[in-house]
Design brief:
This protein has 223 residues and is α/β, with parallel strands linked by helices. The protein contains 7 helices and 9 strands. The radius of gyration is 18 Å and the shape is globular. The protein starts with a strand and ends in a 10-residue tail after the last helix.
Length: 223
């Protein structure tokens, strides 16, 4: 069974969060079209995301083995198990929907902490033994990411490389792990009034079916 991993990163309840509101609609519409998908949800403001301590690694981005883990404290062992659990969940998924607001030209900190947990050698990346660039391991099958981002203002596309660094980073890190198929759904101009927010939500919702139409989960994901 294919899996869709729905990741949210906002402390607000869904009805007050623009990114989570549109994210929920996107996931529901996707499942209506592809009911064979299993949905797993990960709320990064409710889920415990470990902070990476040096004791957890035997080398760069490589989590310690079971023998070394057993020598650590119970708390440290629990943290390592959680890191492995998060990474395995990511690897086992096929479609990723990430719903996040833009904060300070980027995204909320829990998303970065989560990414640090899933970028692991021998799991999602590989470092060559003798020089060369690291390689992503998630190109073993078709996978796709949809990044849903809300922002108070409207950013012209020409200025996005400067002001939308969070989106650029997410796309880059996904490709770094081997996932080349990446779509964005921007909820721009949520403004400061309820009227502005509702107008931005409606505009974003109109794009959902178009993105889903690009997805073919039978053979390839993005066509």
């Amino acid at each position: 069974m294919k899996k869709l991993l729905y990741i949210t990163v906002n402390s607000k309840p869904e009805n007050l969060s623009s990114s989570k509101t549109v994210g929920r609609i996107f996931v529901n519409r996707f499942i209506e079209k592809y009911p064979e998908f299993k949905v797993e949800e990960l709320d990064l403001y409710k889920e415990h995301i470990p902070r990476l301590e040096y004791e957890y690694f035997e080398s760069r981005n490589c989590i310690v083995n079971d023998k070394a883990t057993n020598k650590l404290t119970d708390k440290q062992q629990k943290e390592i198990r959680k890191i492995k659990e998060l990474c395995n969940q990511f690897i086992e998924s096929d479609v990723y929907v990430i719903a996040s607001p833009m904060w300070s030209l980027s995204f909320p900190a829990p998303l970065k902490e989560y990414i640090d947990c899933i970028v692991q050698e021998h799991k999602t990346i590989s470092f060559p033994k003798k020089g060369g660039k690291p390689e992503g391991l998630l190109n073993d099958r078709d996978r796709a990411v949809v990044y849903i981002q809300s922002s108070g203002g409207s950013i012209p596309w020409m200025a996005r490389p400067i002001f939308n660094r969070g989106l650029n980073y997410i796309e880059d890190i996904m490709k770094f792990m081997g996932i080349s198929k990446f779509e964005t759904l921007l909820i721009d101009g949520t403004g400061t009034t309820n009227e502005e927010r509702l107008a931005a939500l409606e505009k974003a919702k109109e794009k959902i079916d178009g993105i889903i139409e690009k997805i073919d989960v039978r053979d390839t994901l993005f066509v």
